[in-house]
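Treating backbone geometry as a discrete language has practical consequences that deserve illustration. In the encoding step, the backbone of a single protein was reduced to a row of integers, each denoting a local shape. The amino acid sequence and the backbone structure tokens for this protein are reproduced below.
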Amino acid sequence: MAKISAIQLCSVPDVNQNLTTITQQLTLLCQQVNDDEHVVVLPECCLFFGGKDAEQLSLAKQTQQSNHLVMSLAKLAEQFKVTLVAGTIPLLTTCGEKFTNTCCVFSPEGVLLGQYSKIHLFDVNVNDNEKTYLESKYTQAGQSVSVVEQATMNIGLSICYDVRFAALYSNLVVQGATLITIPSAFTRVTGKAHWQALLQARAIENQVYIVAAAQEGVHDNGRETWGHSMIISPWGKILVCKAFGEGFITCEYHQEEINRVRAAIPVHEHNKFTVELNKYE
């Protein structure tokens, strides 16, 4: 039996403190779930959040040589014997003045299986404490999509603001994704308005499981995140939701459910539009 889980956090600008919290949540989760195949998803910016954007760049520079962030997450996957979709961490680019917001996926043996860097950057105005977000100031956009193949499922990777761009998800499904993960740090304003609707739309139109792990709460810099981590079925039903606070949600993954939904309403066969793999402007 395969299980899929999401951990909700209120991360702080302290790597070690966040690692401690994630370890605590994984300990509680794995006491309840002990299946042969278990996919666990962490939120966006799981190891450092709530500080200044420039501090993420500094962290990427400080940890480039030691690979500390990647190795710490790999050890957690190995320790708890899970496939860990490790939210996102800042990885320094070759130019050295920007980082990518990157999701790394680790096997239960701690092996890096694949990674994805956020393509769509959050440069917007929002009616909240922060008012203006300019992710591109320090972040370099990714350049390709990624699907990690597993024995029971194929995991399509996306991050937060990506959820507003349906073509990315169509691309992932064409490449074989049966489950799509969405580590996120949605603002409270945009989350309340759009989060659930967007997640259900991506599940329904692509007929896949959606696992969305979110940040939730008021962070050290005053930023407020929406939470409401969810796992959604290929039919668009919310299977489990963690609205507020830190914690986790989990449920079973059934390939038969995907097959049933796709057989009943074969939208992928009926689709008159073609998807050009990995092509975007």
Summary: The chain has a mean pLDDT of 95. Residues 188-206 form the longest helix (19 residues). The radius of gyration is 17 Å. The chain is about 30% helix and 25% strand.
